[in-house]
Write a structure and sequence with these properties.
This protein has about 260 residues and is mainly alpha-helical. The chain has a domain at about 1-170. About 65% of the residues lie in helices and about 0% in strands. The protein is built from eight helices and two strands. The protein has a two-stranded parallel sheet with strand order 1-2. Helix 1 packs across helix 4 (about 120-145), helix 3 (about 70-100) packs across helix 4 and helix 6 crosses helix 7 (about 220-230).
């Protein structure tokens, strides 16, 4: 029971921290606060699974490798490959099964189907190295302490209760997106679609929805059609930033031009 609580708590922590990381990344990339990920709530389960994977991989006894230096290299390499594999499998399942691309590395060098690429594999390796060398020993003690206090199990239960409801709601939305994608013969780039909805709403001064960022489900088809037309025209939202209006020319500058 304790090990289950420990892994559940690690999943919760990873999902929440991953959401925060992705939130600030989108703020930098798009100049807006956009709810990241596939779900409504403040969590990205891929990071939760990743942190559980890190914890389990780093808990294995690698004493069969005599050299501590080579042991460290082996563990970090194993982490890098494992995290990249998790990312690839997750991305592939959504693309092939649901016609939804949750992230897109198509513009990155050496990418494979736009799902994984050397740059982000390096990031996974760097994160894994930091976790293994710095965080793992500290996290073990903290997790054991939290898991042995019953009040934290209540928090975990609440989280997974909300998460379960979110799964049902989010997959209903994605089922409609999948149906539209199959009819139109497309794979919907989910983050690009969310940003398209946000920018289109700003143009007509529609109220910004942070959590339910796609708006009412009844208008989903209409928004997907608009996304399709934008993508067909070559409109890109990936690095969109709010452009400041040009300053009006001063009178002396106008006279010089005359």
């Amino acid at each position: 029971m304790v090990i289950f609580l420990e892994l559940a708590l690690i999943f919760v922590i990873g999902s929440l921290l991953g959401w925060v990381l992705e939130l600030f990344y989108r703020r930098v990339a798009h100049g807006r606060w956009i709810n990241p990920g596939f779900f409504v709530g403040p969590y990205v389960p891929l990071y939760g699974v990743g942190l559980v994977g890190l914890f389990l991989l780093c808990s294995i006894d690698y004493s069969f490798i005599a050299s501590s230096a080579w042991r460290t290299v082996f563990v970090i390499a194993l982490i890098t490959v494992s995290m990249t594999l998790i990312e690839y499998i997750t991305g592939l399942v959504f693309i092939k099964g649901l016609k939804v691309k949750l992230w897109d590395y198509s513009n990155q060098w050496g990418n494979v189907q736009g799902i994984i690429c050397p740059l982000f594999t390096f990031f996974w390796g760097a994160i894994g190295a930091f976790y293994y060398l710095v965080l793992h020993s500290r996290i073990i003690g903290a997790i054991e302490f939290l898991a042995n206090h019953i009040e934290f199990s209540f928090f975990i239960g609440v989280f997974f209760g909300v998460f379960a409801v979110d799964i049902i709601y989010s997959f209903k939305i994605v089922a409609r997106i999948t149906e539209w994608a199959k009819v139109n013969g497309l794979t919907v780039k989910y983050e690009k679609f969310k940003l398209s909805v946000r920018l289109s709403g700003e143009k007509i001064k529609e109220k910004v929805r942070f959590l339910f960022s796609l708006g009412p489900a009844a208008k989903l088809g209409e928004k997907l059609d608009e996304y399709k037309s934008q993508d067909k025209d070559g409109t890109t939202w990936k690095f969109f930033r709010r452009v400041k209006p040009a300053k009006p020319a001063r009178d002396d500058e106008k006279e010089d031009k005359a």
